[in-house]
Amino acid sequence: MRLGADAALLVLPASAPEAQAAELLLDGGAPFRPLSQIPMPDDAGGGTILLLRAKGGSAISLRLGDGPWSPLGAARPLDGLRPLVASAPRLLALLAAKAAGPLRAASDAGLARDLLSLAQPVAQAGPEAMRPLVLLGQGRALWRVDQGGWLVTPQGLARIPDPEGGLAPFPAGTAGAVLLRPDGAPIRLPTAPSTPPSLVELARQATGPQRGLLRQAFIALRRHVQEPWCRDSVRDAQVLAMAPPRAAAETANAVGAAVDRAISDHGGGVFVVGWLHDPLRLTRGFTLRGPFGAIPVPPDRIFRVSRPDVVKKFEQAPFGDADPRPGFVVHVPDAGPGPVAQWRMEVALGSGDAIELVAGPALVPAAQAREAVLRSVNPLDVGPALLDEVLAPAAARLHAAASADPVGQEVVQIGQRPAAPSVSFVIPLYRNLRFIRHQIAAFARDPLLRDAEIIYVLDSPEQRGEAEHLLRGTCGLAGIGVTLVLHGRNAGYATACNTGAAIATAPLLLMLNSDVIPDRPGWMAPLVARLGSDPRIACVGPKLMFDDGSLQHAGLYFARGPGNDWFNCHYFKGFPRHYPEANRTREVPGVTGAAMLIRRRAWDEVGGFHAGYIVGDYEDSDLCLRLRQAGGTIVYEPAAELFHFERQSIAQHGGYAGTVAAAYNRRLHHQRWDSTIETLMAGFTRQGETFAAA
Fold first, then answer.
1. Which option is the CATH number for 256-363: 2.60.40.1200, 1.10.3720.10, 3.30.499.10, 3.10.20.310?
2. pLDDT tens-digit profile of 348-373?
3. Taking Cα atoms as reference points, which of 485, 470, 466, 483 lies closest to residue 410?
């Protein structure tokens, strides 16, 4: 008999031999087996139902075991199934599951109508409690039900999982619908249910019953919060239902505690920073509570850190001196199924009581949250374990989320752009614009730079008017043209440089910081000449000096530091400008990104700067190592001399100064390149000499 447009059912009685070996012919084609064999319940008389895919009008023949083929003739109407359904109504839920599964026919309106036709005679009226309680997004509602199953509407089938807390989401169009239950008779849903409040409206109501229903709704929806129809409603309702932050900060109490921040890491986890004053050691554990349930926090995941402000607060407390490290940070990588707008933390006491702490907003923009993570701990407290287990995982997720946002860019041409430049300058700008006049003046008085393409990339879009006004005035006086690229958001040093390089047109790229000023004209020629002297050279770096004339950079090398990580170091840093060894051209492990000349071909081959580093640090050495990996060499050229006002180009970045961003970048760099650097540095010394093997 037919079921819907593409399905057919064959009912084999319990007496039929070898039902498991049943084969079918469709329109005289090759034999095939049914999609599914459904054992009939004993209360339906036993036997087997064969489910197969067959369009209406198809001729079907059946063979059991080694027997002959028997044509089945025209399909019988559904009436043949009605006695079976009447004796075993749960057979309908089984048919719905099989049809929606192997047949992939959940949206088949004909199948739905057939199942409704079979279910209506045996369906029972739903209990009074079965009604919609909360409206959800995209026409869905949260119903109070006692059991899940298959919801059948004239439009198709929908799986309703077993409810959590007696609540389950139902799709739109439930008028005249039937719930096919795996255990029991079908249930008819009310045809004209009352209109309940939306989840957001429920969150606006402050009375006890509504709050209780809201909590039930969150628990019931936790398995659906990744679906668009649910996610936004759950998020918005949480935001409207937020409570004021709460701490236990009275100095007269035996236990004091607070959660300063509990913020989403935008990857399913939560980063928590707070403090605990417990000189009598009364606490026994921590539990995070969100709208989807409780999460115990393992003690070994909690790192204690210094908090001078808390020590000072409790230094005269009646229950004893404060712990010298009362602060704590913890990262819970899997904190639940969906967005959490606010976290609570329970501090369990030995008595069985608990102190409830309420944090502020958890849904913070990724870049802002990343800065909060990096600023949460004094850099002096950071060791490898704290970095690897807490700070780095949270910061990495937040950096990935922040980087996924579209940057957006606009190109403004100021003055004439060279038609065929020999070199393209790429200069990122962030906040500090005070060196631009000096840079432009130095470029303008160097005749060798007249055909250079100068590209500034502004990574602080709030300064657009100021930067454009400054460049138009300065370049107008100097008589040179520049290209200004405007980012739509702060994207970091690597992305800014990559953006500039993407629109550059010259065969050579000069990566230059905005706080680097040439000492005198003619500095570019030695760099270009050195790069052209050997096709194996991929990148050349100049001599850089502090403002007092001492050496800041004469090539970059790697040395192990605290924690056995590799640190970036500069040859002869602080030595006199004319120190003999610093005036020798030589191969070096790397050069600083403050000023490096690189072949465009080599840059494109390795993909430019790696954007996984935060704000700006270690991208340059990472690039040099990738250039070496691709077969290139790196050379230091002392005949090119420039002043570098070190760190001034990022000194005003809130996500760098005073944070652990440098430690994060160093650790990431070490993990990427540890063994490679070990082998590389075997051929170099700290004094800048190169062994024969190098």
1. 2.60.40.1200
2. 999 999 999 999 999 999 999 999 99
3. 485
How far apart are the C-alpha atoms of 131 and 194, rounded to whole Å? 8
The b/e string for 387-414 (b: 16+ C-beta within 10 A; e otherwise) is bebbbbbbbbbbbbbbbeeebebeebeb
pLDDT (tens digit per residue) in 570-607: 999 999 999 999 999 999 999 999 999 999 999 999 99
Tell me if 2-79 shares its fold with 256-363. yes
* Rounded to 5°, angle at Cα 158 from 154 and 160: 130
Q: How confident is the model at residue 690 (pLDDT cuts 50, 70, 90)?
A: very low
pLDDT over 70, % of the chain: 90
pLDDT value of residue 649: 46
Strand partners, 578: none
Q: For the residues of 512-523, what is the DSSP string, one character each?
A: E-TTEEESSTT-
What class has domain 409-681?
alpha beta
Instruction: Say how many residues make up the chain.
Output: 694
Q: What CA–CA distance (Å, rounded) separates 140 from 322? A: 53
Name the average pLDDT for the chain: 87
Q: How far is CA 103 from the centre of its chain?
A: 36
Residue 77 near residue 49, CB atoms below 8 Å: no
Give residues with Cβ within 8 angstroms of 303, minimum separation 6: 328, 329, 330, 385, 386, 389, 390
The answer to whether the CB of 570 falls within 8 A of the CB of 554 is: yes
pLDDT in tens, 208-225: 777 888 888 888 888 888
Q: Is a pLDDT exceeding 50 seen at residue 317?
A: yes
Q: Around 512, how many Cα atoms within 13 Å sit in the side-chain half-sphere?
A: 28
Report helix, strand or coil for 511: strand
Three-class DSSP category at 437? helix
Name which of 136, 132, 128 is nearest 195 in CA terms: 132
- Residue 325 phi/psi, 5-degree rounding, is -130, 70
Q: What are the phi and psi torsion angles at 501 (to 5°)?
A: -65, -30
Distance, in Å, from the CA atom of 450 to the CA atom of 443, rounded to the nearest integer, reads 8
In which region does residue 293 sit, left (phi positive, over 0), alpha (psi from -120 to 50) or beta (all else)? left
Name the CATH architecture for the domain at 2-79.
Sandwich (2.60)
Which amino acid belongs to residue 462?
Answer: E
**Residues 6 or more apart in contact with residue 26 via CB below 8 angstroms:** 32, 52, 54, 58, 59, 60
What residues does each domain of the chain span?
A: 2-79, 121-240, 256-363, 409-681
Coil/strand/helix, residue 292: coil
Query: In terms of pTM, does the model score above 0.90?
Result: no
